[in-house]
Amino acid sequence: MLGMCRGRRKFLVASLALLFIPALTWLYLSVGSFQVKPLPLSPLEALSSTPVGGAGERQALELRVRVVEEENRALRRELSRPPRSPSAQHPSNNHRGNQSRTHSEEGTGDNESQKAVTVGNSSDCVRHPVVDKCETIHVAIVCAGYNASRDVVTLVKSVLFHRRNPLHFHFITDSIAQQILSSLFHTWMVPAVRVDFYDADELKSEVSWIPNKHYSGIYGLMKLVLTKTLPSDLQRVIVLDTDITFATDIAELWAVFHKFKGQQVLGLVENQSDWYLGNLWKNHRPWPALGRGFNTGVILLLLDRLRKLRWEQMWRLTAERELMSMLSTSLADQDIFNAVIKQNPFLVHQLPCFWNVQLSDHTRSEKCYKDVSDLKVIHWNSPKKLRVKNKHVEFFRNLYLTFLEYDGNLLRRELFGCPSEADHNSENLQKTLSELDEDDPCYEFRRERFTVHRTHLYFLHYEYKPSSDNTDVTLVAQLSMDRCCIKILYLLTIKIKTSL
User: Where in the sequence does UniProt note compositional bias of the Polar residues kind (predicted)?
Assistant: First the structure.
């Protein structure tokens, strides 16, 4: 009985084994046909790696992809659009249009050289120049005597070096300066430059009644009468002292006229010394001024408006009233200009101080610039001139000496695209020089026969008296500044010994 039970158990185990072995084999093969997939690293990868169970899920995924692509295209279109102009964002400013300029009114570190030549910021990004390419810039300078004639040449060189516009110089001169400068510009033959002279002797009676303690003398008062002296059809002019050096294009300063508003007729830089504050010494009593006052080394004059305001009568009445207590001027025309502005502050448009960096002793000129690129106009308004005390005087002195010794012949360059008056002497000279054979061994000598050299008569004070027998001998020399002075001293020594 027991043996039968054991035999049945063995049969049952064998039967079960025969059933499980095929099942396990099938299960092993089934599992081997599947691939092990990595874990997704992002939501997008999870979506792409997840098997789509049906058509509905596949359509949902395709719809989502199309939505994302449409959003990207919309974003690219938005970024590709030009920026909207301020006038379009603010309807109240639409009436300004492209006339809203990007000048910087105040501050010393602004790079105004680019801002002063463009206006507006319209939606089509078109820039319009404030100063037309061929617009003539008018400059008025009072110049008298040998020294001033020598100084003004350095000023003119600095202006010509940077300029890109035609220039018209108006010189108020005595007979000496007119003789020197007329000969200089006639032999210089600079294209697109016109020069007119006005006799200062005829203007002396207009200002001779004003006592003046300034070293400039009576000529330091003649800027007051420019509205009467200059042509009546001249509307605006830049007025400069002879001790000015330009470090930028004068067109940038000319463009500032477009900033004048209301009744503003004078463009001036604030005085950078404490003179008009009256605290330089005990009992110091300056002329009345608005705050620190204004310096008249650089002036923008709207002549047409000044004439309508009866400028002549305005400054005369002010000067007469103040002279009753002040007795005389200390800083020439500057005192009278400031007294008028004190009574009529609406007349002045204050310029950024880099348009007149004043290098006199104890000034605040260092606040007008942070870098060399900030400098526009340098004013040597101290009686010490190049010997003035200043932190950066070496840099300013080197800049001045650069233009002092600069070859003026290099400034005889054409202004392309601007029509200019035909100079027949210059045209004939160029035609003659073009006919010379440059391969000729004597070309340089032949060229010198026709070359017109820039001539500065009476570089130093000299009273010429021609001899009665016409036996004068003139020495013509081309020397550097230092050698020129040594040579002149040498010739003067020889002349003195000969006369003895």
Answer: 89-101, 110-120
C-beta of residue 245 within 8 angstroms of C-beta of residue 358: no
pLDDT along the chain (500 residues), means of 10: 57 62 58 45 43 58 67 58 46 40 40 40 47 94 93 96 96 95 93 95 93 90 95 96 95 96 95 83 85 95 95 94 92 94 95 91 81 87 78 86 90 82 68 83 83 82 77 69 59 50
Which amino acid, 474? T
Q: Which residues contact 41 (CB under 8 A, 6 or more apart)?
A: none
Question: Where do we find the tokens 């404490």?
Answer: 274
Eight-state DSSP code of residue 119:
B
- CA separation for the pair 157, 408 (Å, rounded): 7
End-to-end CA distance of the chain: 174
Alpha-carbon span 130 to 132, nearest angstrom: 6
The pair of structure tokens assigned to 274 is 């404490």
CB 143 within 8 A of CB 177: yes
211 three-state secondary structure: coil
**Beta strand 236-240 pairing with 193-199:** unpaired
